[in-house]
From TrEMBL:
<dbReference type="InterPro" id="IPR052234">
    <property type="entry name" value="U5_snRNP_Component"/>
</dbReference>
<keyword id="KW-0853">WD repeat</keyword>
<dbReference type="InterPro" id="IPR036322">
    <property type="entry name" value="WD40_repeat_dom_sf"/>
</dbReference>
<dbReference type="GO" id="GO:0071013">
    <property type="term" value="C:catalytic step 2 spliceosome"/>
</dbReference>
<feature type="repeat" description="WD">
    <location>
        <begin position="1"/>
        <end position="35"/>
    </location>
</feature>
<dbReference type="InterPro" id="IPR015943">
    <property type="entry name" value="WD40/YVTN_repeat-like_dom_sf"/>
</dbReference>
<keyword id="KW-0687">Ribonucleoprotein</keyword>
<dbReference type="GO" id="GO:0003723">
    <property type="term" value="F:RNA binding"/>
</dbReference>
<dbReference type="InterPro" id="IPR001680">
    <property type="entry name" value="WD40_rpt"/>
</dbReference>
<dbReference type="InterPro" id="IPR019775">
    <property type="entry name" value="WD40_repeat_CS"/>
</dbReference>
<keyword id="KW-0677">Repeat</keyword>
<dbReference type="Pfam" id="PF00400">
    <property type="entry name" value="WD40"/>
</dbReference>
<feature type="repeat" description="WD">
    <location>
        <begin position="62"/>
        <end position="92"/>
    </location>
</feature>
<feature type="repeat" description="WD">
    <location>
        <begin position="93"/>
        <end position="127"/>
    </location>
</feature>
<protein>
    <submittedName>
        <fullName>Small nuclear ribonucleoprotein U5 subunit 40</fullName>
    </submittedName>
</protein>
Amino acid sequence: MRGHADSVTGLSLSSEGSYLLSNAMDNTVRVWDVRPFAPKERCVKVFQGNVHNFEKNLLRCSWSPDGSKIAAGSADRFVYVWDTTSRRILYKLPGHAGSINEVAFHPDEPIILSASSDKRLYMGEIQ
């Protein structure tokens, strides 16, 4: 599937297996329809992070358990959380002193977890 303009750095399959998140050094997170016999244009949504430069790439991505939000770690030391319907950034979570390499949503609680090159793990409460 084509769409990203630079190296892809993360993938995450939705809980029901119909959609794939990908994020790349082109500073976008994309949602792909991976169902059999989907339309030819499989990229169904594009989410933007900060203005792209060498230091501000999006790294890893994750779906919330209900699929209403997505998150990505970033080299700019923030965790970005988007609403999947409106594509709006809901949260830009600070705290790390290095690139955020992984993000995950708690399966039952409104908590997002992040891991960074600063050797720390953070837990953030969201709504």
